[in-house]
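Work Package 3 committed the consortium to producing structural models of liganded targets before the mid-term review. Because experimental data for this complex are still outstanding, the team generated a predictive model from sequence and the ligand definition alone, so that downstream docking and mutagenesis planning could proceed in parallel. The input record is reproduced below exactly as it was submitted to the modelling pipeline, together with the SMILES string for zinc ion.
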Amino acid sequence: MRVRVLGCSGAIAHGCRTTSFLLDDDVLIDAGTGVGDLTLDEMARIDHVLLTHSHLDHVAALPLMLDSVAARRLAAGAAPLQVHALPGTIAALKVHIFNNLIWPDFSAIPSVDAPLMRFVSISVGEVLHVGGKAVEVLPAVHTVPAVGFAAASASGHWVFSGDTGRNPAFWQRINQLPVAQLVIETAFSTREHALAQRSLHLDPGTLADELAQIAPGRQYPIYITHTKPAETGQIMEEIQGFDQAPDRPQDGRHDIRWLSAGQTFEL
Ligand SMILES: [Zn+2]
Ligand SMILES: [Zn+2]
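The resulting structure, written out as tokens with the ligand in place, is given here.
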């Protein structure tokens, strides 16, 4: 399976795009502003969008991409784009975005029977079979209903935390999975610890507590995502500070790396 990082920033700025990952050609994990870097052909090949939650930085490009590919997909007789999300996420999208005020309701265009988009409800623990891939829905702890995902590949699972605060159930589950790569958020620096707590995100200190739950002896690359552009340097320094501290035992260190848009991984 190929994982292409379209966006992995916590906000927009020149060179910073919000959360979106493309699995092979046809499955999109979140639809942040990174989707805007895809060509029309690439966008039109996406058959499934899996959403972690309803926040704008993860869904902003969904209504826009539907508009971009509508004519092509209709001309090709393509099946409706399937948008997989928790019932609470789907309800929020219907009420606040696809409400014919902010954007047309693409689940009824051109007709209710043959629309351009169809919502599919998911639940935590379920394994979705999309585009020939098996993707497990993982728990997340956020201010709105939220999930993470684990996509099975030949070399193990590609695991994505989604937006989350402290999340013991997540570690319980992924400690049982062969993990090829973990992508985990650290939205704020230590200075913003109170804001991170309130908005249910991680900061370097809570990330350290979370990583301590990885079962002994398990090592895999850990990629940091969702850093706020203004704080990225600070967050990275602080993470390195705790993970590479001289008094830290060698087996307590992790293989922590920085994620950037444009990276592609073959798993
Ligand atoms: Zn969020
Ligand atoms: Zn977010």
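Reviewers should note the following from the model. The chain has one domain: 2-257. These observations will guide the Year 2 experiments.
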